[in-house]
């Protein structure tokens, strides 16, 4: 049986997500290592539940998150993505997500003591009072140690607007409040930086250079020539003979012209 990484928590910003990641990295909390089955989905996908999972390319790991529910269009509230659950009675009664005219204004966040909450910001900007679940998603590149390749870690949390004011935050959790974040381990993964893209491209050695092109004999520079004079003609002009066999025809032609 797989359980939520944290059973009841309100994650507000990127630092909160990184704190949960660090608790997982230290072994205090457990990540999800496979897809949830039907029993786990029905039991543990509820308001307050937080799941951490590590993206994996092989068949034994997780490539994407599935929970068996139908979600509306994503909404970005930095640094999270939010999805409102589509309820059965929503069809035909509410305007579609694409046709709905937004009545909110994008701001930096809500005015409150402590870190600004992306979830509360999403609630304030919504055009209707959604009564179902809301899914909150965040990703980061995690480098467990300086010699390891970065891994893509994900956090998926659920809440309802009615329950959100009652969910505890990081500073109200006895374990998470003591977590100290290390430097250089977590980097927001919502978009790949130029450094990440350049690191994925193979680089050639700085000492390597393309092979020289073979220029034509008459178009390029001739190889060094050795001056040879005929016997007994010290005051006569010397004839130049090429070191390379392919230059002999040219030298002979030049020599014959000079003799004439």
Account of the protein in words:
- There is one protein chain.
- The chain is of the alpha+beta class.
- Helices cover 17% and strands 16% of the residues.
- The protein has five helices and eight strands; from the N terminus they run H-H-E-E-E-H-E-E-E-H-E-E-H.
- Strands 1, 2, 3, 4, 5 and 6 form a six-stranded antiparallel β-sheet that branches. The chain has a two-stranded antiparallel sheet with strand order 7-8.
- The longest helix has 12 residues.
- It is elongated and about 105 Å long.
- The termini are far apart.
- This is cAMP-independent regulatory protein pac2.
- InterPro entries: Gti1/Pac2.
- Pfam families: Gti1_Pac2.
- GO terms for molecular function: DNA binding.
